[in-house]
Amino acid sequence: MPQIRVAVAGAGIAGLTLAAALHRAGIDCHVHEQTDRLSEVGAGVQVAPNATRLLHRLGLRDRLRAVAVAPEAIEMRRWDDGRLLHRTPLGDQCHRRFGAPYHAVHRADLHSALLSLVPPDRVHLGARLVAVTQSTDEARLHLSDGTTVAADLVVGADGIHSVVREQIVADQPRYSGQTIYRGLVPAERVPFLLTEPRVRLWLGPDQHVVCYPVSSGRQVSFGATVSAADWREESWSARGDVAELAKAYAGWHRDVARLIGAAQTVSRWALHDRESIDRLSSGRVAVIGDAAHPMLPFQAQGANQAIEDAVVLAVCLADAGPNGLDAALRRYERIRLPRTTRIQRQSRANAETFHLVDGDAQRRRDTSAEISSGLDRHEWLFGYDAEQAATTSRRA
Ligand SMILES: Cc1cc2nc3c(=O)[nH]c(=O)nc-3n(C[C@H](O)[C@H](O)[C@H](O)COP(=O)(O)OP(=O)(O)OC[C@H]3O[C@@H](n4cnc5c(N)ncnc54)[C@H](O)[C@@H]3O)c2cc1C
């Protein structure tokens, strides 16, 4: 049977995971990335068991363990007095229950771990996609230097502003009204945050802060949201103003003030998502990751879902061969859409829940059984095995 050829746009977490999973399956895949130099910037990313189990199977268990932190818990606290509202146990308890760890990782570490799985001659830098065309026989990437690349399948892993997605739906990113300041602080400047490695959140009126250690505990990554009607930048390198951030969090718990006070630089990022769609492919074109289902980061699952997408798509394609492409893409959509749509919506709902002003609804949130049921309420999310779902659907 002739080999299927896959061309991927974007070498972020989604694109590299797909390239790694296709390489493992012996499928020819080339990744075309707009930037000239591959270096994931930004700060930390939480990788939950639903994704770490897939990364382990791709061969990254030891490499991740060497750079990641395994937080003992996720703690949610009140914005003013720091009172503990809710604690989700992680650490060994989570690892035992789900058979894979919860990790907090620097993005650059995750990115270079994924890159190590892809043969260097399969990643093409300085290759900006400007358009996609397709016929019954092939799909084609049109790059900004005027060259084109033909493939049996084009996969858009080109993020929230995906060019590939335009083949499937005509929609636009929608601004959430929220911006997020992100930063990395050397651990020695915030020793009070390192007694036990945890993901810590402080929830308050209209905004929240999250922080956790990364880089084997050498740095603390944080994100602090601030509402803004008029900010539209989406770039890890868009500079934020630490003084402005401190002002926005005046009156919050002293640990929040100390954390922000320890930051020397911050980036500021406007948070967008898109409406869920009911297709992830059209003809010889498919999308994965943020190109498929960009979500607000309030459930820390965007990258996790990108990894799940990539592994599932690779399994479906490995079964297909060139003549079964259409069926493979239908199967990929069937497996992925219900889950990613649910998580996308939940992430948006969390924006409201996290930011309730003090009052009845906030008190109900803080005392609800739902929020206090430990790992049980994460079973559907962390316990899910995307690869198994794909292989089971093969038998079905
Ligand atoms: C503040 C914040 C915190 C987050 N925290 C978490 C978390 O803790 N856990 C989690 O799971 N998720 C988190 N996320 C979400 C996560 O960052 C994204 O879901 C994830 O990065 C998506 O990966 P991706 O590869 O699909 O897209 P991207 O990371 O956007 O990568 C897209 C790639 O495609 C390239 N590209 C774009 N356009 C083109 C083009 N035209 N031609 C060629 N290449 C192109 C880009 O340069 C880039 O390399 C967070 C997001 C934000 C904003």
TrEMBL record:
<dbReference type="InterPro" id="IPR002938">
    <property type="entry name" value="FAD-bd"/>
</dbReference>
<keyword id="KW-0503">Monooxygenase</keyword>
<dbReference type="InterPro" id="IPR050493">
    <property type="entry name" value="FAD-dep_Monooxygenase_BioMet"/>
</dbReference>
<dbReference type="GO" id="GO:0071949">
    <property type="term" value="F:FAD binding"/>
</dbReference>
<keyword id="KW-0560">Oxidoreductase</keyword>
<keyword id="KW-0274">FAD</keyword>
<feature type="domain" description="FAD-binding">
    <location>
        <begin position="5"/>
        <end position="346"/>
    </location>
</feature>
<keyword id="KW-0285">Flavoprotein</keyword>
<dbReference type="InterPro" id="IPR036188">
    <property type="entry name" value="FAD/NAD-bd_sf"/>
</dbReference>
<dbReference type="GO" id="GO:0004497">
    <property type="term" value="F:monooxygenase activity"/>
</dbReference>
<protein>
    <submittedName>
        <fullName>Salicylate hydroxylase</fullName>
    </submittedName>
</protein>
<dbReference type="Pfam" id="PF01494">
    <property type="entry name" value="FAD_binding_3"/>
</dbReference>
